[in-house]
Amino acid sequence: MIDSSTLRLADAFGCGVAGNFAGHLEQAGEAADFVRVAPVTPEAPRAVFPWYIPSTNGGTPEFLHVFPLASDRLILPAGDAVNLQIEPEAGAVAELTYDDAGFVTAIAPRYLGAFNDCSIRREGAVKISHKKNWGPCSKGLAARLFAIDGIEVPGPTEHLRLASFLCRDGETHEYGIDSPIREYSYYGERLIGWMIERLRNQRDSADTPIENVGDYLIACARPRWVVIGLGATRYTALGESTYLEVGDDSVVVLYDETRHAPSDVAAAVREGREDRLDRASVLRQRVVADGGPSPVPG
Length: 298
Description:
- This protein is mainly β.
- It has helices spanning about 25, 190-200, 215-220, 235-240, 260-270; strands at about 1-5, 15-20, 45-50, 70, 75, 85, 90-100, 105-115, 120, 140, 145, 160-170, 170-180, 225-230, 250-255, 280-290.
- Strands 1, 2, 3, 4, 7, 8, 10, 11 and 14 form a 9-stranded mixed sheet that branches. Strands 5-16-15-12-13 form a 5-stranded mixed sheet.
- The N and C termini lie far apart (about 40 Å).
């Protein structure tokens, strides 16, 4: 495994895959946003969206230039009734290859870890990105990542599972449904091929929540690296209806099911010893208050 602090992630592009786990968009109240987005297949993800763009010379949303990743805390933005939810995901750090026109031709995952694509549930938000980056410490990536040479199945990631928890007032609750990542709707080469096509052809429109993510990559001088949230799992009943508060701990664990049982992972988190899981990427973030206004549109 590798320490993510050794990677220059502030120079990497940040994006996510929307609708890559059956049922999540409906639970998050976002399915209606995509009624005008025709999927490639019925089970296909709906879009690639940006959550961080390294500095550019213009033409990209300014609020996305703020680096949002942290491995120890989440900042709750100021304001009344801020509905913030954990989005437990596998996060891939991948190397990009481009053609002469600047479009992506290959995506090679090198590292995989626990990722929190934390979201503000904003009614009427114009774009997905408006729910994704409200400043520093608004996203999470584990300090320790699995080093991999791909995400094919069969392959080195096929036995990884994703679990998430909310720790509040001395109690630990399952927030997302513990799930094998091989159950992503699109995974492996199928997901990589879909992403490449979307980065080349996905286009913004006023009546959908998607954006020209491929053009954003060109605008920030075609970064070598990208951090990809592969999609959030389904929520438990508690996760679907419970928003984060100051003092909570958000915990996401990506772990090897051949080494650790789901019950053992839950017990380790409950007892505060999840860092002792030897084949796991663990992200624990304390929710803290912010003193300033959110810069996100809407």
